[in-house]
Amino acid sequence: MRAVLTGHSLWLDQLSPLPQRPALNGSLEADVVVVGGGFTGLWTAYYLKQLDPSLSVVVVERHHVGFGASGRNGGWVVAEFACGLDRYAAMSSHDEAFRLVRELHASVGEIGRVIRAEGIECGFHKGGTIRFARNAAQLERQRQEVAHEHAAGFTDDDFRLLSPDQTRSIAAADGVLGGLFFAHTAAVDPGRLVTGLAAACEDAGVIIVERTTVESVGDHVVHTDRGDLRARHIVQAIEAYTRDLDGERRRLLPVYSRMIATEPLTAEQWAEIGLDDRPTFADDRYMVIYGQRTEDGRLAFGGRGIPYLWGSGIDPASEVRSDSHARVDAALFELFPQLRGIGITHRWGGVLAIPRDWTPFVHHDPDRGFLAAGGYVGEGVATANLAGRTMAELITGADTQRVGLPWIKALPRRWEPEPLRWLGVRSSYRLMAAADRIEDRGKTSRLGITLANLLRGS
Q: What is the pLDDT confidence band of residue 454, given thresholds at 50, 70 and 90?
């Protein structure tokens, strides 16, 4: 069985060869220049042309469309913020934060609508998310979470607890004590979605240039290695790769996640495992894992591994580290021991971005004509849609409730300088792994709870 260790994801490998677009050839002017050919940038460009077809829009990408997290993620179109509702409520009010979360919930359906309207074949299916509780501490956290969400105004139509039998009827994961079902998630092939979205943008008149390195972003100008791009509005949409811009290395923390994909499972194997409605799945350990049943009958599964490199480093060699991938393998086979011996066809990795306050953001400085969005903490497929739609509305002056949502704010403060952030992140992840081991022995780890809160700045 072939193992692909090139850093190319299952999603992009199945698209090979990728469409090739020209690089920028000299300086150019446009109404809007978007830096980044991932979901955030492409959704912004798409909605700009929907709102005002007369606008000239240029998207500039260093590698190829979907090179970063948009082409490497787990394919979760999940309508959740890592920081939860409370952080945004503290910035504004409970009602405003609740409205923001409901807009994110609606974004899952909006993505499905665009996929159907544009004829994008990407395996989109809204089956929700199931999170397994596999020890007593995880089960208690789920009970507290659902009680908290219901007190905030959500219902069983959003979050609901599952009994052990209900959980096992959805997926035959090992050691299940119960579960939590979250309704606002779809599974998707993100590679086909991001390339299909790029094609829809081009059909609408958006210009996409690839193999063009952005060196810095100024007022109404983007400096690249192939010429300058001038515009009334500039959108910065490069998430973890913000660290490559002049003066921005500490703006967002690039954190690695690794993934594997199995060979297609047989009908008999799927009958044993379940996941019939293709819910995305995880459990409630502190060291995050995530997976989905793909449209072609594989399991795509990931986890954090060794998460952070010194100096906010991004190193392609780190994406295929055997020790990190061994941890992902072990987590999958611990969850589904009946799959031991199944062939692994793809291994890859990529970086997500974490802001210092753990709150995803949209930023708008109308005096500079500058907008930015990101900090999705690994939950960006749905969030990028809402961010792109919001930025397009801010640029065009559309009068919608989205342009007043509380995540439109100042850029996040920078992370601490080295060695503080390396020591902090590395030690925190090691301690959270220790907390998982404590909970697996049947005890509650206050250490894990405290560290999770500290990492989120709370």
A: low
Residue with tokens 């002017």: 29
Q: What is the pLDDT of residue 316?
A: 85
- Does residue 456 surpass a pLDDT of 70? no
428 pLDDT band, cuts 50/70/90, is confident
Q: How far is CA 432 from CA 97, 257, 263, 377, 453, in A?
A: 29, 16, 31, 17, 11
Tokens of 3: 């193992």
Handedness of CA 115, 119, 124, 126 (dihedral sign): positive
Q: Is the pLDDT of residue 457 over 80?
A: no
The pLDDT tens digits for 87-146 are 999 999 999 999 999 999 999 999 999 999 999 999 999 999 999 999 999 999 999 999
Write down the pLDDT at residue 432. Answer: 86
How many other β-carbons are positioned within 10 Å of the β-carbon of residue 385? Answer: 27
Report whether pLDDT(153) > 50: yes
Here the tokens at position 71 are 């082409």
CA dihedral 98, 100, 104, 105 (to 10 degrees): 20
In this model, does residue 41 exceed pLDDT 80? yes
Whether the Cβ atoms of residue 127 and residue 186 lie closer than 8 Å to each other? yes
| Residue type present at position 265 | L
CA angle centred on 381, ends 378 and 384, rounded to 5°: 100
Residue (of 457, 60, 65) closest to 245 by Cα position = 60
Q: Average pLDDT, whole number, for the chain? A: 94
- 318 in Cβ contact with 306 (< 8 Å): yes
CA distance 374 to 271: 39
Q: Per-residue b/e over 320-343, b at no fewer than 16 CB within 10 Å?
A: bbeebbebbbebbbbbbeebeebe
CA-to-CA distance for 347 and 320, rounded, in angstroms? 7
Q: How far apart, in whole angstroms, are the C-alpha atoms of residue 101 and residue 105?
A: 6
User: Do you find a cis peptide bond into 17, omega within 30 degrees of 0?
Assistant: yes
Look up residue 206 and give its amino acid. Answer: V
- Which pLDDT tens digit goes with each residue over 156-178? 999 999 999 999 999 999 999 99
Consecutive H or E run containing 382: helix 380-396
d(CA 230, CA 209): 15
Would you state the pLDDT for residue 451? 61
E strand or H helix at 259: strand 253-262
Q: Are 48 and 55 in contact (CB under 8 A)?
A: yes
Nearest to 97 by CA among 451, 360, 394, 370: 360
* % of the chain surpassing 70 pLDDT: 95
As a whole number of angstroms, the distance between CA 20 and CA 277 comes to 35
